[in-house]
Design a protein that fits this description.
This protein has about 300 residues and is an alpha/beta fold. The chain folds into 2 domains: about 170 residues, Rossmann fold (3-Layer(aba) Sandwich); about 100 residues, Orthogonal Bundle (DNA polymerase, domain 1). Helices cover about 45% and strands about 10% of the residues. It has a 7-stranded mixed β-sheet with strand order 3-2-1-4-5-7-6, sandwiched between helices. The longest helix is centred in the middle third of the chain and has 15 residues. The chain starts with 10 loop residues before the first helix and ends with a strand.
Length: about 300
Amino acid sequence: MSPAYHTPVLAGEVARLATGLARIVDGTAGGGGHTILFVDAGAQVLAIDRDPDAITAARARITSDRVRFFEAAFGSDDALRAVAAFRPQLVLLDLGVSSHQIDQDARGFSFRRGAPLDMRMTLGDGQTAADLLNEAPEPELADLFHDYADEPRSRRLAGEITRRRAHAPFATSDDLVNAIRAVLGPRAGPPDFARLFQAVRMAVNDEPGELGRALPALRDALEPGGALAVITYHSGEDRVVKQAFREWARSCICPREQPVCTCRGRPLGEAHPRRGIVPPDDEIAANPRARSARVRVFRTADGR
């Protein structure tokens, strides 16, 4: 498979999930890496992505008439209606940002010197990272770095940003890198920058919020016995997925103090395996981006 746009993570596991299926949704198609696997498995594919550049790249790579492309965020009303009408047997979400997006400095996902603070998944739509860093209240910034980056000095970092923006607005990656170094010290390096830039990107695109809203609708769109697979790269996203799958697998979700069950009274399916699946060592060696990836799979009950 050509890595010209983006190397698909956990390709072996994804291909295994697709075996023998007729209808699959690739909810984050990117350049089409996973979509190609689904086409090769013989499935009809609904390939969704909010990034028009990604859709253009995927169309150029994939000419099969078994693929329908849909430009939208996977959690948007339009996308969820399209998924429900498609009645898939598998839905895949590969969260985060693609290698191609990171490599395009103009998109602002990178902490390379001089890169603009943009980070929007949908070009020209909504606030940029610069807007967020220059306008968000200090407590909101502190929560962002705490919740999305597990940063213990989140309050200090938020204070440093608000102090600096009072003198000059944040505009490029250098502005955020310098604020991070001022708080974390001179030993701060690429792992810290990547973690904190990722937190800003997640906030700019409301990624955890979209994920939490979309998961139940994607589950309900599946054929009985179908599977929802989510690849995460971040502990916060993984918690959202893990907690949703755990709740769906419970037979009762009534409050403990309630004497009689009045909820659904049955599990909606099960997560398998419970701990998720991580890439093998040889994949991580070939594609370092895969090192933090984990796929969790929830399979719905037959005849729910």
